[in-house]
Design a protein that fits this description.
By secondary structure, this protein is α/β, with parallel strands linked by helices. It has one domain (26-304): Purple Acid Phosphatase, chain A, domain 2, CATH 3.60.21. Helix content is 23%, strand content 24%. The protein has helices spanning 46-58, 82-99, 118-121, 133-138, 173-185, 204-210, 230-240, and strands at residues 28-35, 66-69, 104-106, 146-150, 153-157, 161-164, 167-170, 193-196, 212-213, 219-220, 243-248, 254-259, 262-267, 286-293, 298-304. It has a 6-stranded mixed beta sheet with strand order 4-5-8-11-13-12, covered by helices on one side. It has a 5-stranded mixed beta sheet with strand order 3-2-1-14-15, with no helix packed on it. Helix 1 (46-58) runs parallel beside helix 2 and helix 5 runs parallel beside helix 7. It is globular, with a radius of gyration of 19 Å. The relative contact order is 0.21. Bound molecules: zinc ion (ZN). Zinc ion is lined by residues 37, 39, 72, 109, 111, 250, 252. Zinc ion binds next to loops.
Length: 313
């Protein structure tokens, strides 16, 4: 099953109303689009697919003002040599230049980090563009984590990827955690906050897909799938009291969890199953439309943009 045909019914019904907690009386602050896990590459029609997605967003009758990209912009640079990494970033810049006239705020994904697998990427770790440097340059970002105020909301972009051994794990690290603490403390409690991170801070879908019982009868979840520091992050959010919505990607699934009035949403993937079909037979090639309201409520809708898997021989 490679997801050919039947795309019209691929977005489950619940996804159309997921997160719809807007009161109905609050004024809308802004409409956003969230894209995630584009995994751009020369193969499988990915560039055409991504362009189709961008055009679909921009041709919405009620068009978003800003795109939030929660990472994995390119297929992979963790285990990829220099020339192919170059090729993917060039392709990214071309598609965005040609087909995107909206501003885009970008979080880095694990696949955007270059050379973490030193053997496969044939890197030493001393290359000037090793790690996040190349992605920051290609995406014209000053820092992999940052915050800004717009539309009456405070936006925090986190960097979920902590290089670890020959790969990565989902963690902010001490420096970023201290920065986050300070940033939250400096944000008025009356300002609603939206968080972007590539790796979900928490994901109920991950538990239901990947939960394993280890030999000691404990639950095991790989540390690259979800934030290992989720309890500390959530506790900071709770202390602030007005963190409303956390958007992530990474798992290429749609799910939603809510705790202490904070909603954690994983918003599918532009590339669905890495352009090879429909992820888990139900998470179509798509993006999310997110409406933010003045009272801190929001609505979230997953939209399939009509891409059909390209079969390559
Ligand atoms: Zn991904």
């Amino acid at each position: 099953m490679m997801g050919m045909g039947g795309a019209a019914i691929m977005v489950p019904n619940w996804a159309r109303t997921s997160g719809k907690i807007a009161t109905g009386t609050a004024k809308r602050s802004v409409r956003l689009a969230q894209i995630s896990d584009i995994h751009l590459q020369p193969e499988l029609g990915a560039a055409k697919g991504f362009a189709q997605c961008l055009r679909h967003i921009q041709s919405q009758a009620d068009a978003p003002k800003l795109i939030l990209n929660t990472g994995d912009s390119i297929m992979d640079s963790i285990a990829t040599k220099e020339p192919r990494t170059e090729l993917q970033w060039d392709l990214w810049q071309k598609v965005v230049r040609d087909d995107c006239s909206l501003p885009m705020e970008i979080a880095l994904g694990n696949h955007d980090y270059w050379g973490l697998d030193r053997a496969k990427s044939e890197t030493s770790g001393n290359e000037p563009r090793w790690g996040k440097r190349w992605a920051l340059d290609a995406l014209e970002l000053k820092s992999s984590y940052r915050s800004f105020d717009r539309f009456g909301w405070h936006f925090i972009v986190l960097d979920s990827v902590e290089p670890f051994q020959n790969g990565y794990r989902g963690r902010l690290g001490e420096e970023q955690m201290a920065w986050l603490k300070g940033d939250l403390a400096a944000t008025p409690k009356s300002t609603p906050i939206l968080i972007m991170s590539h790796i979900p801070i928490v994901s109920v879908g991950l538990l239901l897909n990947d939960l394993k019982e280890n030999k000691d009868h404990n639950i095991e979840i790989p540390g690259g799938r979800m934030h290992l520091d989720a309890p500390q992050i959530h506790s900071l959010f709770r202390q602030h009291g007005n963190v409303k919505l956390c958007l992530s990607g990474h798992l290429h699934i749609l799910d939603r969890g809510e705790y202490d009035g904070i909603t954690y949403l994983t918003s599918g993937a532009v590339s669905s199953s890495w352009w090879k079909g429909i992820r888990l037979d139900r998470f179509d090639y798509g993006y999310a439309l997110v409406d933010l309201f003045e009272d801190g409520s929001f609505s979230h809708e997953y939209v399939a943009y009509g891409w059909k898997t390209v079969m390559e021989s």
